[in-house]
Amino acid sequence: MATRGPYAKGVAKREEILSKALEVIARQGYRKTSTRELAAAVGLSEAGLLHYFGSKEKLFEAVLRARDEADTARLGDELDVIDKLGAVVRHNADVPGLVQLYSTFSTEAGDPQHGAHEYFVERYQRLRAALAASVRARQADGTMSTAADPEKIATLLIAVSDGLQIQSQYRLDAEPADVLDHLVELLGAG
């Protein structure tokens, strides 16, 4: 049974806001996108926009969550998590504004008092666990060296992925996904 009434309208408006925010931030970047501009794009005042999220921090956290959900939906279940990480890095080359949002916002959220701090704590824990499981699966099927510690490799893959995407904002001479793929190849069974 479909949800109806004011609650359904609120959910629909929130989804519209997130969709528009993903589009605008991907195109213009985090620093060049104001909440006032996002509000106008969806026919709301700035206060009306923030009403749906509670704060600017929670709005941008919701944008990053929506980006993660879109990546998951786009990639499906055919790839393992290591390959999905490479595919996301490859896709992110086409949405530099979202990379800028992620890198800036993740740095700001390093402060435990920041509204999105727990989002990043949980995201990194979840991603490390999934990548470690993928490393173990590759080790079991003989496609990754058993000398590699799954948890440490998971942590390194995230660090390399994030670091390459930050470097890409400063005219990195190589495609970040190609560099990440090279690292994964080096970790292979040999």
Low-confidence stretches: none
Under the CATH scheme, which class of the domain at 57-186? Mainly Alpha
> Structural class, please?
mainly alpha
Here the CATH topology of the domain at 57-186 equals Tetracycline Repressor, domain 2
Q: List SSEs in N-to-C order.
A: HHHHHHHHH
Gross morphology: elongated
Report the sheet-strand fraction: under 5%
- Largest sheet entry: none
Radius of gyration of CA atoms, rounded to a whole number:
18 Å
- Helix content percent band: over 70%
Q: How far is the first residue's CA from the last residue's CA? A: 54 Å
Give the CATH H-level superfamily of the domain at 57-186. Answer: Tetracycline Repressor, domain 2
Number of strands: 0
What would you say the CATH architecture of the domain at 57-186 is? Orthogonal Bundle
Mean pLDDT: 90
Helices, by number, come to 9
Concise synopsis of the structure shown:
The chain is an all-alpha fold and 190 residues long. The protein has a domain at 57-186: Tetracycline Repressor, domain 2 (Orthogonal Bundle), CATH 1.10.357.
